[in-house]
């Protein structure tokens, strides 16, 4: 956030006095000093502690408000309040309407209700904070605040530069996949597929299936067949509307042939049942293993206590299918009566990352935890990964849902983050371009807008480094077939190549 101007300050003070009779002049003076404090400090700084705010405390200082926003809201709405700037408000942007949105939430669309965990006073103050902070701001101004990453960037073991392949993806880039000729397919969540050519031209690919572009849904991952050079097959995961009930959606996979700049013979090969009235936790990463099996990750859709632990549905699972959607007969629950026979592992929350270990070929998965408890897991046939019976996280609103972090018969993560980083795409670095980065796991963070490098020794995390701090919400990170590492970043929609300095 930028410095608070005195004009903004008087507006906060005015609004607070206007809406909160408890605010005495002394408190306004305190507020003024904390405003100065905050203006010297970047409220979006992930270095802020996760200190909780005592709802019983009457005096809420501006510094606390920024912290409260950062703790409760910034992970989803942007630490820089980006999602509120130039927003087309669905539920209105008056004080009263916003307060109602925060109190009641829109649970099915991913907005938690805070009415029972934050005091009315804190909700009012948060609302004031949001309105004041976004007043007069444009998305363009936020982009100007992005750090300068144009020069040589040094990491613990390697210096590198960024090469922007395109910054013109209109919307949120979600998945990236390189073709054998070096061109790169990029999905845009709103429902469009683009090809970023070697010469940096951006071309739209037509023939994409209709997607339900609401909440976390839309056009999601993209993957090509291992034998793409001969069959031109492309796979897309997306949120699909129930043909019999337009308020229900689910994660689905379509397969098509890429012919010139068109998708042809588009065919749905996987649909995660049941369709649900929810627009979140689709999961939806796609990955082929070395034997040519296709893995599809499906999130819990926000139905934490209903589906992930039961085998009679597709929700909160990773599935293993053939390249045409048929079910391999050696799947772990193939012969289990009543079980969905595509299930590979279950007890999963919202898996938006998958990668094969470059040496062992094992399947690794990354998933969003609730508040805290984001996980990296190694997936083996038939595993129960424990969600929501065991978890290192708590609910977004600060309440708990389990005290257990371990249980017999449930797998432990290889690694977990508390506080959450909101991990999206992930990849192991392979090949020889990146020196000591080789076999390390790179995870993209939506919340902190950086790339997290987990330094690995075999299956063990032995060190950490964060790179490209503040670059924007990083949606995907992938090893290209050309041996380079690529990232897809939001605001503006960018595809970027990391070029190691020799
Ligand atoms: C887990 C992610 C998440 C968290 C955490 C979260 N929100 Fe939201 N919020 C959403 C989503 C998704 C929507 C859109 C819901 C919809 O369109 O129905 C939303 C909608 C809203 C709206 C209504 C916007 C409109 O268009 O009318 C407001 C206001 C809001 N959030 C404020 C907050 C505040 C303040 C916090 C922190 C106390 C917060 N949110 C925390 C995900 C989140």
Provide a descriptive summary of the structure in words.
The model is unreliable at 1-59 (pLDDT under 50). This protein folds into two domains: 6-140, Cytochrome Bc1 Complex, Chain D, domain 2, CATH 1.10.760; 146-500, Neuraminidase. The chain is α+β, with helices and mostly antiparallel strands. The two termini are 36 Å apart. Strand 23 and strand 24 form a beta hairpin. It is 16% helix and 31% strand. It has helices spanning 6-19, 25-39, 62-72, 74-77, 95-104, 120-134, 139-144, 228-231, and strands at 153-154, 159-169, 173-178, 184-188, 192-196, 202-205, 219-224, 233-242, 245-259, 262-271, 286-288, 294-298, 317-321, 343-346, 350-356, 363-368, 374-379, 415-417, 423-428, 441-445, 451-457, 460-467, 474-479, 485-489, 493-500. The strands form six sheets. Strands 1-2-25-24-23 form a five-stranded antiparallel β-sheet, with no helix packed on it. A four-stranded antiparallel β-sheet has the order 3-4-5-6, with no helix packed on it. Strands 7-8-9-10 form a four-stranded antiparallel β-sheet, with no helix packed on it. It has eight helices and 25 strands. It binds heme C. Heme C is lined by residues 72-73, 75-77, 87, 89-91, 98, 101-102, 106, 109-112, 114, 126, 215, 396.
Please tag this protein with its features.
25 strands; 8 helices; disordered N terminus; binds heme C; single chain; alpha+beta; 502 residues; four-stranded antiparallel β-sheet; Cytochrome Bc1 Complex, Chain D, domain 2
Write the layout of secondary structure elements.
Elements: H1 6-19, H2 25-39, H3 62-72, H4 74-77, H5 95-104, H6 120-134, H7 139-144, E1 153-154, E2 159-169, E3 173-178, E4 184-188, E5 192-196, E6 202-205, E7 219-224, H8 228-231, E8 233-242, E9 245-259, E10 262-271, E11 286-288, E12 294-298, E13 317-321, E14 343-346, E15 350-356, E16 363-368, E17 374-379, E18 415-417, E19 423-428, E20 441-445, E21 451-457, E22 460-467, E23 474-479, E24 485-489, E25 493-500
Antiparallel strand pairs: 1-2, 2-25, 3-4, 4-5, 5-6, 7-8, 8-9, 9-10, 11-12, 12-13, 13-14, 15-16, 16-17, 17-18, 19-20, 20-21, 21-22, 23-24, 24-25
Helix pairs in contact: 1-6, 3-6, 5-6
The structure holds heme C (HEC).
